[in-house]
Amino acid sequence: MSPRIAGMNSPDRVVLGISGGVDSAVAAALLKEAGLDVHALFMRNWEEDDDAYCTAAADLQDARRTCDELGIPLHTVSFAEEYRERVFRHFLDELAAGRTPNPDVACNREIKFGVCFEHAERLGARWFATGHYARTATQDGRASLLRAADAAKDQTYFLHTVPGPLLSRTLFPIGGLAKSEVRRIARERALPVHDKRDSTGICFVGERPFAEFLANYLPARPGDIETPEGRRLGRHRGLMYYTLGQRQGIEIGGVRGAAEAPWYVAAKDLERNLLVVVQDHDHPLLVSLEFDTGPAHWIAGSPPSRRFTCTVKTRYRQADQDCIVEIADDGACLVTTRQPQRAVTPGQSAVFYQGEQCLGGAVIARTRYNSAAKSGPFVSPEVA
Fold it and tell me: CA–CA separation, 275 vs 36, rounded Å?
C-alpha cells in the first residue's frame, strides 16, 4: 500500500473516480481497507443513444456492484456537456487542422482533474483518488509525479498536464502494484469485476469503426494520394483518417513501376487536400532529430532550466529517448533527440522525464528537420 495512504487518518474523506473496471475497483478496496471514509464518483462523460457501442450503462452497473460489495456510497454525475466543449470540440478542431490529437490527455486535464475534482470537493473530499497507474511524492515541498511500478502499465504520459497542487491531494492506490497483482487482489476480494477485460481505444468511440464514428461530425473530403515526386497513386477518404507513419488502411494496390513494399503516410498537405506516401519505413520525410512544441506545462510550475537534458516520449508506448530541451520566451520548446525519431506527429504530446519523475510536457507543433542526415553532434547543455 502507498505510504501516503497508510499514514492517513481515518476521518479523511476520499472521493474515488470509479469507472466500473478492475483498476478503480481495487483502488476502492485498498482505500476502504485503510479505514478511510471512501466515497465513489462515477462520471458520465458521453451521452450516446447507440447502446451497441456505448458501455456507460454497463460500466455504471459494474461500479454499483463493486460499491455494494465494499459498502461505500456511490455518486453519479454527468459531465457530458463539459466533455463536449472542452475535450471533444478540441479533438474535432485538431483533426480538421490536419493534426492527430490525444483526447485522453485533455480528458485528464479538463474532466477528471478539472470538473470532477471540483465535484469531489463539493462532496467533502480532502483527497481525490483514481485507478491510474502512477505514483506521487513530495520533493522540496512540492508534489511530483512518478512512474508506476509496473512500467508496462504506467500512465504518467496521460497525466502530465495535471497541476502539481492537485497532485498533492491525489492518491493513486495501485500505482505501486503490477497489473497481475491488481488482478490477484480483485480475485481474492471477490470483487465482481475481477475478470472484466480492460477497455481500449478512445472512450467516446468505443468499439465502433473510427471512420464510421467520425463521419457523423466531420464531412469527408476525399483527395489524391501522391508520392513526394508528385506521382498520383489513388484517392484517400479524408486527411482526418490518417496519421504520420500509418501503414494499414491506405488502400493502395499494386503500383506499376513501384517496388512490392508497404506504403506509409509521410505527410498531409492540408491546403491541397493531399496525402503524401512513401515506401521506405525510414524515409527522410518520416525521420527527424528536432521538433517544436507549443507552450509546455511543468508539474513543478517551471522547467528545470532554460536548457536541459532529459528523456522524452513522443507517443505513449515509446521507449524513453535522450534529448535536449530548449525553452523559448513564450514557453514553447525546441527538442533535439540523440537518435533520429520516426513519425513525430503534430498534435500528439511530447512528455519529458528525468529518471522516474515526469516533468511535464507539451503538444508537438512541427518537426524542424526531416532528415536523419542532418544529425550532427549531440552535446549536453552542461558542456556546450
Answer: 55
- Averaged pLDDT for residues 91-104: 94
| Average pLDDT of the chain, as a whole number | 89
How far is it, in rounded angstroms, from Cα 378 to Cα 76? 52
pLDDT at 6: 57
* pLDDT over 60 (residue 348): yes
Rg (the chain; Cα; Å): 23
Cα 281 vs. chain centroid, distance in angstroms? 25
Neighbour tally for 190: CB within 10 Å: 8
CATH fold, domain 219-278, is: SH3 type barrels. (2.30.30)
The residue-averaged pLDDT of 48-56 equals 60
Q: Where are the alpha helices (DSSP H) in the chain?
A: 3-6, 22-33, 56-70, 80-83, 89-96, 103-107, 116-122, 156-159, 164-167, 179-188, 210-214
Report, as an integer, the average pLDDT of 195-219.
77
DSSP-assigned beta bridge partners for residue 59: none
- The model's confidence at residue 372, banded by pLDDT at 50, 70 and 90, is very low
Catalytic residue (one of 67, 107, 323, 358) = 107
Catalytic residue status for 323? no
| 284-374 is a CATH 2.40.30.10 domain | yes
Which among 38, 3, 37 has a CA at the least distance from the CA of 17? 38
CATH class of 3-188: alpha beta
81 CB burial (10 A radius; 0-12, 13-18, 19+): exposed
Do 3-188 and 284-374 fold alike per CATH?
no
Residues facing 170 on adjacent strands: 128
- Which residue shows C-alpha cell 515509446? 318
**Could you give the 3-state DSSP secondary structure of residue 370?**
coil
Which sequence spans correspond to the domains of the chain?
Answer: 3-188, 219-278, 284-374
Q: Please state the pTM of the whole predicted model.
A: 0.91
Phi, psi of 26 (to 5 degrees): -70, -40
- Set 54, 67, 116, 203: catalytic member: 203
Amino acid code (one letter) for 145: L
67 part of the active site: no
